[in-house]
Structure prediction request, 129 residues.
Amino acid sequence: MNPIVGWILAVLIVITSWQAYGWSGVALAVTLIVFWLLLQFNRTVRVMKNAAGAPVGSVPSAVELNAKLKKGMLLMQVIGMTRSLGRKVSEAPDVDVFAWADNGGSEVVVTFEGGRARRWTLTRPDTPE
Prediction:
């Protein structure tokens, strides 16, 4: 969800609860919003904790990662799927490029625009004939 839409919904919930129940409604609405934010923070910390033990940019199978990727996935979802932080390939405004490789030499390079996966490429090592 777009963060702006989320905050607009939160404000609307606070206003509606104030009109319906007064200050006790505002207290309940704020409590629910804080609880939701804590759930999101807890999920982020858990994903990062799982990724902290793995080498940067390493996955068991780059081909499997390539098959599981979907357009529009968040970076946090990809990190959760790979259980590894990606190796940053390039830096540009509003575009992040991360790579994950396996032991066989295959590598997936994922381009994130606006925090979401837009495109990715799988490169495999040349096999001698």
About this structure: Residues 54-123 form a domain with the Beta-lactamase Inhibitory Protein; Chain:B, domain 1 fold (CATH 3.30.1450.10). The two ends are 49 Å apart (CA to CA). DSSP finds four helices and four strands in the chain. The CA atoms of residues 15 and 26 lie 8 Å apart.
